[in-house]
Design goal:
heterodimer; A: alpha/beta; globular; B: mainly alpha
């Protein structure tokens, strides 16, 4: 059974149909890519899944549970983490606090309030988790710095660490490689695969970098003007005439 | 205890010290709403007013014990904080500020016409129960409680809400309930301060809680540094003591007061302690140590 299912999902903004009857099904532990030209509705799709928008039509379900209509924080608590295309960090919090603040929201407000004492088991555990995540992203040394003092690549990694802090089973990455140099991109590819394997995550990503998408995604969907024009393995998508015409272009 | 202290300290200074304490309590409340959570409230005097009147009416008209009256004053203000928190869910920034100003004005006009509160004449004969010891103890407790709250993982979520609401929500933070809570806590402390104020002043009238009072409290938080507890304490201290020290310049007092505010904000745009962290101070000291080791 797929982890995430979208059935005939549409989204209208005024008269603009940003998404038009999109079907999607993402399998457990897969790395699924969404590509398409600018304005194709990729980020809108993410915003619909994470409850920032609610779809005008259609159904979204996560492990059999309906997501459409749920508020953003409830979606997050079901185990869906995400990053943003335009980085959204808590700039004037330390790197460590950026991650810590996203941990353990299923415990409830009172538990968080009283979880500061050293004796508290859950706080101890979560503080190890935060350290592990920062270590994994290569940010442990900078844990006390303000988030906005990090470099661009580090900020992107911090967003991933924060998204992982809520212990998601599905991770949505919105253009994770944007602004990264080629070395960082290679590291990122390794990281994405490592997260999938070690943390048993299902990963859905939007990306313009074809090298990254074709290398690590097992399944790719192509959006154009709000419609899904193709879906399949990287090989199938790469050779689909419709995709070449609308997005990839012909090599000269 | 209070009598002993009063023998040693001049009543004029005593009065300033007590007002500093009361202002610290109220400013720490506003700091949670506006400084930490980022919900611009320009009507904090409304909560102060509610706390002051509710508690004073309880002791004067109904003969309630003092401790019950201040608790009731704070709770009444907190209840109104909840009501004002609800529109805050749909509004932000300037628009929210307008709503809070409107709220404080409604409260002021209500007490201008409220018979048990003495209408425009004000309410007098309030028992003078607030003393140094009580204000000192409550101030310390409030400082410790807010510090504890803001250092908890829940407290960090208030900061996260200020920094980026959409991201906070995507992290699983219920931004709706946190916004309302920030108003409830802020209003509770505003009401608590108001209740202590009325039982120190013998006499209160609606003019004591006008728009300029709201601005004065906001100034304390902004001057000290939005979101910083030591900053808020410093801001409340300076802005309570400064007008008194400026009495020497007589009628130019408020002019100097304004000019000093402008100058301070030019040199410290993030507030006096707005961007100071113990970590940064330690790092600076640490670097010096390293240098001495090498030399």
């Amino acid at each position: 059974m797929p982890v995430l299912m979208l059935e005939k999902v549409s989204q209208e903004f005024g008269g603009l149909r940003a998404l038009d009857g999109v079907d999607l099904s993402v399998e457990e532990k897969s790395i699924y890519g969404i590509i398409g030209p600018n304005g194709a509705g990729k980020t809108t799709l993410f915003n619909l899944i994470t409850g920032i928008y609610h779809p005008s039509e259609g159904k979204i379900s996560f492990r059999g549970r309906r997501l459409d209509g749920l508020t953003s924080y409830r979606v997050a608590r079901l185990g869906i983490g995400r990053t943003f295309q335009n980085i959204r960090l808590f700039n004037r919090l330390s790197v460590e606090d950026n991650v810590k603040v996203a941990t353990g929201w299923t415990e409830g407000i009172l538990a968080r309030l009283f979880s500061r004492s050293e004796a508290s088991h859950s706080d101890q555990k979560s503080s190890y988790e935060v350290d592990d995540l920062l270590g994994m992203m290569g940010l442990y040394e900078k844990r006390q710095e303000y988030a906005n003092s990090l470099s661009y690549g580090e900020q992107r990694r911090l967003e991933i660490a924060r998204a992982l802090a809520g212990r998601p089973s599905l991770l949505l990455l919105d253009e994770p490689a944007a602004g990264m140099n080629s070395t960082e991109k290679v590291e990122l590819m390794g990281l994405i695969q490592q997260m999938r394997d070690d943390m048993h995550l299902t990963i859905l990503l939007v990306e313009h970098d074809m090298q990254l998408v074709m290398n690590i995604c097992e399944q790719i969907a192509v959006l154009d003007y709000g419609r899904k024009i193709a879906e399949g393995s990287p090989y199938e998508v790469k050779n689909n005439p419709l995709v070449i015409q609308s997005y990839l272009g012909v090599e000269q | 205890m209070d009598q002993l202290i009063n023998q040693w300290i001049d009543p004029y200074y005593m009065r300033i010290i007590i007002l500093v304490g009361i202002n610290i309590i109220m400013a720490l409340g506003l700091n949670i709403t506006t400084g930490v959570t980022g919900q611009l409230s320009m009507g904090h005097a409304g909560f102060m007013s509610l706390g002051a009147y509710a508690s004073a009416i309880l002791t004067v008209k109904l003969g309630a014990p003092f401790w019950l009256a201040i608790l009731a004053g704070a709770l009444v203000a907190a209840a109104f904080g909840f009501l004002i928190g609800l529109p805050a869910l749909r509004l932000e920034g300037d628009y929210l500020a307008i709503v809070t100003i409107g709220f404080a004005e409604i409260v002021r006009v209500f007490f201008l016409n409220f018979e048990p509160g003495g209408k425009a004449v004000g309410l007098s004969g309030i028992p003078k129960e607030t003393g140094f010891t009580l204000v000192f103890v409550i101030t310390v407790v409030v400082i410790l409680l807010t510090a504890w709250l803001l250092n908890s993982r829940l407290g960090k979520a208030f900061y996260a809400l200020r920094e980026n609401e959409i991201a906070a929500s995507a992290c699983g933070i219920n931004t709706t309930s946190l916004k309302v809570w920030s108003f409830v806590i802020g209003a509770f402390l505003g009401g608590l301060g108001g209740a202590l104020y009325s039982h120190y002043m013998y006499f209160i009238s609606p003019q004591d809680f006008d728009f300029s009072r709201s601005i004065e409290l906001l100034n304390m938080v902004v001057l000290g540094g939005l979101g910083s507890i030591p900053g808020t304490i410093l801001g409340a201290g300076i802005l309570t003591i400064l007008p008194e020290m400026l009495r020497v310049v007589a009628e130019y007092r408020m002019l100097f007061y304004g000019a000093l505010l402008v100058i301070l904000m030019i040199f410290r745009p993030n507030g006096l302690l707005g961007d100071v962290r113990i970590y940064d101070l330690k790092k600076r000291l640490g670097k010096k140590e390293v240098n001495t080791c090498r030399s």
